[in-house]
Structure formats: structure tokens, C-alpha cells
Specification:
The structure is a homodimer of 102-residue chains. Chain A is of the alpha+beta class and 102 residues long. Chain A has helices at 14-21, 24-36, 41-45, 50-62, 81-87, 91-96, and strands at residues 39-40, 66-71, 74-79. In chain A, strands 1-3-2 form a 3-stranded antiparallel beta sheet. Chain A starts with 13 loop residues before the first helix and ends in a 6-residue tail after the last helix. Chains A, B: This is ArsR family transcriptional regulator.
């Protein structure tokens, strides 16, 4: 199974990142990965519909937020936190640590 | 001319704020207000279509980002920066000060 492509954060603008985060499902995935560190797609699916989650994974990956590594039959997902913090300082911290839940 | 309603930031969640900011026109307005401090609707319009800008002003106001005060025939707009910083610490700073323009 090939590894998915990951864009360079240097090619991603703040609007793309904001658009990706401005969705309840995707924000929930980002929060789960922040807490869990790394998670398989199955772990992130929970009771969410697989087809729409596949779209959300694509959006998060294409916007430079999500990294997916393939090991055997499993996809392991994590946040590209270090790079995000480098290119958008403070953004993920402010969103993840907000006391105002959505 | 009555003053528009402004929601309490206590009732606004991070998702609403992200959705409001995840638009090129609205992000441009927010950036202009950050630089200018206060601006009339006419100053913010520039060559943008009035009808769509009216919608964008509504979205920014309803999401707690924009404050509008009415003085005579003019509407003066500004960011609710202090309240935003209180409820979403670091969010506006990270978005406004990012070196990666959209």
C-alpha cells in the first residue's frame, strides 16, 4: 500500500489551514490526535461514516495538518505539529488549548 | 439607524470563529481592521461587491469578531480583539502575525 502524498508546509497558506480546521468532524479528529499522539483510521472512525471520514482525512492531509504512515494494512495518523508550529506559530496551540469547546 | 446586535463571546465556540475566518474576503477585512484599527464599511468595501460584503460583515459580526458602531449615517467597524484574546487566547495573534499570507 503506497504512502499518501504530503504537501510541504511551505506551499500551504493560513486560509487553507483555517478551512481544514473549520469543520466539526475534522476538528474532532485533530483533537483526538493531539491527545492520542498517533491513531489508526479505524480508531479515528468511531461511529462516524467511513465515506465522509475518508474525505476529511484527505482534506486534513492536503492542508498539511495530518501525516499518515502506512505499515502493513494499517494507516497510522498523526498531527504535523512541529511543522505547523514552525509555519503558523501559536495557531494549533490556541485552537487545541482553548477552553471553549465546540 | 439602530446599532447592530453583537453576541456575547461567551456564547461563541471556536468552530464558529474558525468558519468566519476561513474565507479570503473576511480574512482580508480582519487584516485591514487589524492594521487600521477602525474603518467604515465604505473603506472596507474597496472594489468588492457590496452585496457579498454585507453578508461577510454579518458573518464576522455574528461570530463575535467584528464590532460595528453607528454614528450618523456611518458604520464604524473594529475587531473585538480584547474579548477574542480573552476567550481564544493567541488565536488572532497567530492568524494576524503569520508570515504566510493567503
Amino acid at each position: 500500500m503506497p504512502c499518501p502524498d504530503h504537501p510541504s508546509l511551505a506551499t500551504i497558506d493560513i486560509l487553507t489551514v483555517l478551512r481544514a480546521l473549520a469543520d466539526p468532524m475534522r476538528l474532532a479528529v485533530v483533537r483526538q490526535l493531539h491527545e492520542q499522539g498517533e491513531a489508526t483510521c479505524a480508531e479515528l472512525l468511531r461511529n462516524r461514516p467511513k465515506s465522509s471520514m475518508s474525505h476529511h482525512f484527505h482534506v486534513l492531509r492536503d492542508s498539511g495538518i495530518l501525516h499518515t504512515r502506512v505499515e502493513g494494512l494499517h494507516h497510522y495518523n498523526s498531527l504535523r505539529r512541529q511543522e505547523l508550529d514552525q509555519y503558523f506559530p501559536g495557531l494549533m496551540t490556541s485552537i487545541l488549548l482553548t477552553t471553549k469547546e465546540s
